[in-house]
Design a protein that fits this description.
Blueprint (H helix, E strand, L loop, with lengths): L2 H24 L55 E6 L13 E7 L4 E6 L5 E7 L2 E6 L12 E6 L4 E4 L4 E6 L5 E7 L7 E2 H6 L7 H8 L3 H9 L8
Antiparallel strand pairs: 1-2, 2-9, 3-8, 3-10, 4-7, 4-9, 5-6, 5-8
Helix pairs in contact: 3-4
Keywords: Apoplast, Disulfide bond, Manganese, Metal-binding, Secreted, Signal
Organism: Perilla frutescens var. hirtella (Perilla citriodora)
GO cellular component, one term: apoplast
Length: about 240
Amino acid sequence: MKKSGIFQQLLLFLTIVVFSSLLADAYDPDPLQDFCIAVNDTKAAVFVNGKICKDPKTVTADDFYYPGGVSFPKPITNPLGSKITLVYDEILAGLNTQGVAIAYLEFAPDGLNPPHEHPRGSEIFLVLEGTLYAGLITSNPPNPNDKNPLFSKILNPGDVFVFPRGMTHFQHNIGKTKAVAIAAFNSQNPGVMTIGKSIFGSEPSVPPEILAKAFQVDQNLVEHLQSLTWTGNVN
C-alpha cells in the first residue's frame, strides 16, 4: 500500500476518534447532584437532574414565577451580618434543566459572606448598593510550595466581579451603610460549601487530630471550634 493511502487512513481514523470524543462529551452533562448511587432496580424512578418532571399538560405560568421573593427587606439576625435569598430549582420549579439560578444578598455594616465555594456553578456578582470588598483564591499554584493567589477588589454600585466555579471566595461590607448585591449562576443548583462551617461543623465531626495536623494548630483549638454553633446566612 502506498504511503499516501496509509496516511489517509490514519487521518480518517484520527478524525473518527476526535468526533467520537466530542459526541461523548455532548451526551455527558455536568452533574447537578453531589452524588448518585447506582442501583440495578428497574422499578426505580427516573429523574432529570434529580427531579421527576411534571406532565407538560399541567404546567402553568406559576411554575416559572417567584413572586416578590427577594424584594422585601428582613432583619439580618445571624452573627455573620449577611443574608442571602437564593432562588434555585428547589424554590422555583421552572428552573429545573435551565442551568441558571440567582441570589439576592444583603449585608449589614461589617457584614460578611464568609469564604465559601460553589461546586457546581460559576458566579457573576453585581453590586447594587454600598461598598464591598470581594476576593477569590485560586487553586493549583505552579509551584507546590507557592501560596495560592488572592484576587480582590473593592466593589461599588454597578461594579461586577466573577467567581469561577469551585474557587473559594468571599464578600465583606466595608462601608458604613447596608450593602446589596445580586449574584447569578450558570447552574440551577450551584451548591455551597462554606469553609468554616463545613470543616468544623460537620456531622459527624472530623476527628480533631486530623484537623489539628492539617491546620497546624493545637487540638484544643480545633475542639473549641467544633463546639461552636455554626450558622449559615442563606434564607
